């Protein structure tokens, strides 16, 4: 019985060592206060810290106002990947949304979050360009 327990422990240790896993730079992005109609795209950057290819099978958002885009190719061990998220900034007011990632990682389901506040005001000042003095 003791040998069976030892064999089982070795199996689980070797199984957990040969797996894929995410390591995100940030798991939550705060847009802060942004203007209505401004750029609502943000990027979650992650690294595959496992020793096998990481495949993102599906990404779901908590509502239709948030559109996530997954990488189409597997992320190899040690490589970085990106998940782009676009929020519809035509909707004024506060928001807090979840993005659920389904993958072949050791933790099959991963939750990312975005939040912020879309102001209804209009910017009166023209953004300055680095290429001109005006």
Give a concise summary.
The protein is mainly β and about 130 residues long. It contains one helix and eight strands; from the N terminus they run αββββββββ. Strand 7 (about 95-105) and strand 8 form a beta hairpin.
Task: Write structural notes for this entry.
With 134 residues, the protein is mainly β. The protein has one helix and eight strands, in the order αββββββββ. β7 and β8 form a beta hairpin. The protein starts with a helix and ends in a 15-residue tail after the last strand. The model is unreliable at 4-16 (pLDDT under 50).
Task: Chart the SSEs and their pairings.
Layout: H1 2-17, E1 22-24, E2 28-35, E3 41-48, E4 56-61, E5 66-69, E6 80-87, E7 93-103, E8 109-119
Parallel strand pairs: 2-8
Antiparallel strand pairs: 1-3, 3-6, 4-7, 5-6, 7-8
